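Wed. Picked up where I left off yesterday with GST N-terminal domain-containing protein. The coffee machine is broken again, so keeping this brief.
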Amino acid sequence: MVSERDHERFHLVNRTRPVWNIANHLYSKRRLIAVPLRQKERNRKRASFDFFNPRRLAMAVVTQLPILNSKSDAPSLFDGTTRLYVAVTCPFAQRPWMVRNYKGLDNSIELVAIDLQDKPKWYLEKVYPPGKVPSLEHNGKVKGESLDLMEYIDKNFEGPSLFPEGSGKEEVTKELLAFSDEVNKQVFSAFRNKDADAAYAAEHIGPVLDRLEAALGKFEIEGPFFLGQLSAVDLAYAPFFARFEMLAPELMSYDIFEGRPKLAKWFKEMNSVDAYTDTVTYDLNALAHVLKKNYGRL
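Structure written out below (tokens, as returned):
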């Protein structure tokens, strides 16, 4: 067993199935492998924290997807195949990925993982010049922005809809999806503040979480999700709450679910939704360790 102290010196992969490690694309069938980092990576000074930097999060990643980098050949672009481009540690990319999963589109939308720190030249020049993920190649065009892609996939592909209609749900959906940007802004800003404690969190994060707690009461007679039944709203928030839940206690001694029973129940339910959990291609404990280190909290 590798100790917590050794986490900064090793990439940990703990799975019985074949896995890819994005740091060096090591392929192994062993149950546990500990791969020493290159010396220059160990000694590299940590710059300001980039929350979605795949290379920074490499030791936490466990995925069977090959990660395409600057040395990788391009797929047969614009050949009629629909492709969703993602980065495996990016919560924004998880959003349309989850819609794809929920609607059963594995055979209709090919998943392509990109190394954002070593992007293929063809991705920038031929696919999506902004160089961000997620992006969707469909019908000879490429679209971006995670919330837009969630709706686009839902409306343009077969399968159960994640955008329910009736009972005012369309307006609530629009409102809560837009509000997700404010939630992320407030929480990540607090995480970056090294002086933030529980009192700071209660003042700056508490109000946005309380608003979500109240929102969960609107349709609770129909179920534990924001619109009663599972919808795009739940998928938009879930990958971020996985990070909030881990980091708020560690960085600010703050429990985001304390006093918010509906929010706690909601996230517990989300962790039983395959469309979401199938996109969690990283070990959460290892991820938490890396993120704490990058925030200078170890």
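Quick read: Confidence is low (pLDDT under 50) at residues 1-59.
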